Automatic annotation (TrEMBL):
It holds the Pfam family Peripla_BP_4. The lineage of its organism: Bacteria, Bacillati, Bacillota, Clostridia, Lachnospirales. This is Ribose transport system substrate-binding protein. The keyword GTP-binding does not apply. Residues 27-48 are annotated as: Disordered. Gene3D superfamilies: 3.40.50.2300. GO terms for cellular component: cell envelope. Residues 55-309 form the Periplasmic binding protein domain. It is found in: Cell envelope. It comes from the Bacteria. Residues 1-24 form the signal peptide.
């Protein structure tokens, strides 16, 4: 695992995590019902503790670079700290993820880190952890209840930041034209938040119109035909926004093949392939969603909970927009994603 010094933004996120000592470990169901903001006042939760921390990691899938990287990041970082991790892959199957969690419990884990298929899906597995006294740390995506901490990012903010940067690149408030939006997975909170943040920015410019694709599940192979259809059906296309870089790169490939060299393409995640194309002038921008910092923070949060320390219910790992102005700070061919760990 290649690590680098923390950037100022990452240090801010780290300080947010360190500052979590002001609260106590919570679950959604344990917050006070008197109207108090649950992020400011929490109640304590007893943690089932054995002699050693044994983490179970349930990953939603391995079918995108982001998800595929999450498993070795968590395993390698935990190994550095002498912590055992058992990992299982749900293959985007909710029923399998619930069974995987039961399997992890039977293997004697005393902490679960989960990247859920969706926020509703693994409810049976999460409830089983609750009944067994096993704390749950969600990473990337969250669940609706019975988690102790969620380590993630503000996806609304990520979509909004990319939208604002795109407006700037298109000439500001006087910009006109059609923007194609390549959507992620139907019903996914991540998809809806990135969409809503992006629309919040773009809707302020009356000359810009957004046309959405069918749901492409963050999969480049699905984004390519979707982009082909949209380009055939729409004129005056000036930009394409993908809910992740993998899909957006598929859209950029279609544009290159069809000679649409003036269409600006942008996405989210900081996939290194996209970052290197920014450096080459073939891709506009991305919002970083560094899985290294995300996975490491999830492990650190699990350790804090196991040790009886207080953590915030939401641990924000932070983001930054990468474009031509700062791409040299993040471009590194040895990495799969632009990392905020320096």
């Amino acid at each position: 695992m290649k690590l680098k010094k923390l950037t100022a933004l990452t240090m801010t996120a780290a300080l947010m995590l360190a500052a979590a000592g002001c609260g106590a470990v919570t679950t959604e169901n344990e917050n006070k019902s008197d109207g108090t903001d649950k992020s400011q006042e929490t109640t304590s939760k007893e943690v089932k503790k054995d002699d050693e921390l044994k983490i179970g990691f349930s990953n939603c899938s391995q079918d995108t670079p982001f998800f595929a990287n999450m498993t070795p990041i968590i395993e390698d970082y935990a190994k550095e700290k002498g912590i055992s991790v058992v990992s299982l892959n749900a293959d985007n199957d909710i029923e399998k993820q619930n069974k995987d969690i039961q399997d992890l419990i039977s293997q004697g884990i005393n902490m679960l880190i989960i990247n859920p298929v969706n926020e509703d899906g693994p409810s049976a597995g999460i409830e089983a952890c609750k009944n067994a006294g096993i704390p749950v740390v969600t990473v990337d995506k969250n669940v609706k209840k019975d988690y102790t901490a969620w380590v993630g990012r503000d996806n609304i903010e990520m979509g909004r930041l990319v939208g604002e940067k795109l407006i700037e690149m298109l000439g500001g408030e006087s910009a006109t034209g059609t923007i194609l939006e390549i959507q992620g997975t139907a019903g996914s909170t991540t998809m809806m938040n990135r969409r809503d943040g992006f629309h919040e920015a773009i809707d302020k410019v009356p000359g810009l119109k957004i046309v959405q694709s069918s749901y492409c599940d963050y999969d480049r192979s699905k984004a390519i035909p979707a982009t082909q259809d949209l380009l055939q059906a729409n004129k005056d296309v000036v930009a394409i926004f993908g809910h992740n870089d993998d899909m957006a790169l598929g859209a950029a490939q279609v544009c290159a093949e069809q000679g649409f060299t003036d269409i600006i393409v942008c996405g989210v995640d900081g996939l290194m392939e996209a970052v290197l194309q920014i450096e080459d002038g073939k891709y506009a921008c991305t919002a970083s969603n560094d899985p290294v910092l995300l996975g490491q923070t999830a492990v650190d949060t699990a350790i804090k909970i196991f040790d009886g320390e207080s953590v915030e219910e939401f641990v924000d790992a932070g983001t930054v927009v990468i474009d031509s102005s700062n791409v040299k700070d993040y471009a590194d061919k040895e990495l799969d994603f632009a990392t905020m760990v320096k």
